[in-house]
Write a structure and sequence with these properties.
Layout lengths: L1 E8 L4 E8 L7 E6 L8 E8 L5 E10 L2 E10 L3 E2 L5 E6 L3 E8 L5 E7 L6 E6 L6 E7 L12 E4 L4 E13 L2 E15 L4 E3 L8 E2 L7 E7 L5 E8 L6 E8 L6 E2 L2
Antiparallel strand pairs: 1-2, 2-3, 4-5, 5-6, 6-7, 6-8, 9-10, 10-11, 11-12, 13-14, 14-15, 15-16, 15-17, 18-19, 19-20, 20-21
Amino acid sequence: LVTVAFATYDGTNHSVRTITRSAGSDTFDGDPVDVTSSPSEPVYGPLLDFNAEGDGIAMWQVNLGGGDIGLRARTYDRDTGWSSSGSKAVGHSTTGITQPSVAIDDAGDAVAIWATFNNGGPAYGAAIDPATGDWASTQLSTGANGALISDPSAVAADNQGNFVAVWQEYAMVDPTTPDQSTTHVVTSTFNVARGSWLAADGSSPTEGFAGETLGGAPTIGADAAGNMLVVLAGIASDFSGAGYRSFYRPAGGVFRDTA
């Protein structure tokens, strides 16, 4: 099954629509489905994720006016379709939202992450309660190490009750000025049972990838067994070379440099 999501405006209403293509089909099925709840608010940047069971989630940004940007999401059940309760608020920011990401695991738990246009400010995450579809916001990073920037941030599920986020930060010259000559890539793990973010070894809220002084553009993926791989662009801390690097985390383990 293939699902596509896109934002539209017909001159009156704003909406996020989805359309599916069944397995083995050469064409998409029927008409697009409107998954939004507030057609008067401009929407953009829809994201999709599905688990191996066929359950999914769509998330998008909403312009709430006055500089306030929100995130909304709607869940998809493989048996009944898009949630009858409509979309739910995930979070919002009066300083804008950049690089949101969302993931759902095979148990139906889902986690979203996003950053704000606020130098030195915090990043945020939210976790869904599968029973109600409501989201509870959690602070992902205090911003003490830097300001999240507009390179990709990403989150993936390991299907063992954990969601792992990666993102890029600037180091800060002062509380409002990022040092654009130094960046690093950071990771944190949200454990569903614990309900909070911690480094993989539980020692601190976040951890950096060793050896990266100018790390950037991270992406993360997981297989069905919970093994994870992060790929990022970077320059070694001794400036000896540049290129793409990868970090592997076996299921239940910690990241290690692989290339």
